[in-house]
Amino acid sequence: MRVALLTREFPPEVYGGAGVHVEYLAEELDRLVDLEVHAFGKERPSSLVKATYEPWSALIDAYKRHAAALGTMSVDLAMALAVEGADVVHTHTWYANLAGHLAAMTYDVPHVMTSHSLEPLRPWKAEQLGGGYALSSWCERTSIEAADAVIAVSGAMRDDIIRCYPNVDAARVQVVHNGIDVTQYQKDDATDVLERLGVEPGEPYAFFVGRMTRQKGIVHLLDAVAHMDGDHTVVVLASSPDTKEIGDELRQRAAEVQGKGARLLLVEETPPRRDVIQLFSHATVFVCPSIYEPFGLVNIEAMACETAVVATAVGGIPEIVVPGETGLLVEVGEADEHGTPLDRDGFARRFAAAVDEVLGDPERAAALGTAGRDRVHSQFTWPAIAERTVELYRSVVDGRS
Description:
There is one protein chain. This protein is about 45% helix and about 15% strand. By secondary structure, the protein is an alpha/beta fold. It folds into two domains: about 1-180 and about 380-400, 3-Layer(aba) Sandwich (Rossmann fold); about 190-380, Rossmann fold (3-Layer(aba) Sandwich), CATH 3.40.50. β11 (about 285-290), α12 (about 295-305) and β12 form a beta-alpha-beta unit.
């Protein structure tokens, strides 16, 4: 079976959970099917990548917010043209969904799409994309309603798909969880990264890593830090602000919190994976304050490194973190259409209390971390996920016969 995997992200250009998912899934799929990867951007060193695509130059040169979405659509046209001969086209995120939809119509082949997030549940993207948000929403809606099968990365994500897109037949939406390479994500006893950043080896700390975007809830974490025990340290590793305004807002809030005496270390960089694994490994607790998280792969990464987790009880996170066993979950409470808690201070205080609870009990934190590692090894490995995905490919191919 020849499978064309269409994606915006592929190593070394990976900036989010969807890119990590595609990277590891592709490695396992290549053992089971005849796989070819089509990716946005520059040439990749991987032998799995058949072709890469840049947006039309006229759109790149436009320097307008909505030009980014139009540029994406130009890549989708080129991708659709290039996958002739594939038995299945599998796309990831709205960036590639339209390409899969067009290829399915052009070549009469099944289109499988994996939903890592949903545009209707990310309305703050209008701030980032301008009129491009209407285009990204149209690409996703058109593709998901016509796809032969839709993979949801969590049960909560499946519920969201059916709620946001009632025209999608629920029988076509299948849950296949994200996974992790447990040979790569495991405890690292080295301390060179900590020393470079100024984190004292052996000192308890809470750790966050993620993009500067509304859905990751960094501003709420910074609010929580202001309410935490003053002796507790929080390390925030943040990168890739969606907009300049978001980056400025988070830096200003961090400075305010630091000015009140909180032990907050804000580091703005996109680190290599090894650095993140070391920071996971030495953290007493990993914190995930997301207000929207269809799955929450970063929590699995932390758990694989034997780190306890404090996270919000949103999206797919409760399918990962078992309260009292591998970490603690914090309710966001009543929220607006963006997922932002209406009682922002109350949420911050609840989150701060949960983080303090784990930081204040190192023995319990260690036990939670051990249980988390065991849960990842038993539930979230890539070989089983790839086999389930190939089963789905076969079912949609047979359905077209």
